[in-house]
Design goal:
By secondary structure, the protein is an all-alpha fold. It has six helices and no strands.
């Protein structure tokens, strides 16, 4: 029975996450791009979605932190900064971040599918070349 629970809990959590993304409209790139357009027709609804997610998740994270103190984080280095900039550029230009892109791609969006494929190629390249770089240090 525990094997079923280990498999079922992440499935239900993922389905709830995907349904939440669809209901909030966050799988629509235009909605995300409108949030990022602070000089134009700004749409604050993404901030409300993020605020709601933080309000739900924060107590759980605080409880987890008390039970299992986290390990110290590594330094902020060039790899982290470059990765953050690339993520932000991809999110701003496409309107997708990984979670909503997976949901939209599973719904048949060709644009989202192209994004997911490019994301996968980026992950493969990062693992291949990043792992080599880490082995050398």
């Amino acid at each position: 029975m525990s094997g079923l629970v280990v498999w079922l809990v992440p499935l239900v959590a993922g389905l709830l996450f995907g349904i939440g993304l669809m209901l909030s409209g966050m799988v629509e790139p235009g909605k995300v791009q409108a949030f990022l357009d602070v000089g134009g027709r700004w749409d604050p609804s993404l901030a409300l979605v993020m605020g709601g997610a933080i309000a739900v998740a924060l107590p759980v994270f605080q409880l987890a932190r008390r039970r299992h103190p986290s390990a110290p984080h590594g330094p902020v280095d060039g790899r982290l900064i470059i990765g953050s900039v690339l993520f932000g550029l991809g999110w701003g230009l496409s309107g997708y971040c990984p979670g909503p892109a997976l949901v939209a791609a599973s719904g048949g969006s060709g644009e989202a599918l192209a994004y997911v494929m490019a994301m996968g190629l980026g992950m493969i390249a990062g693992n291949r070349f990043g792992a080599r770089e880490l082995r050398q240090t």
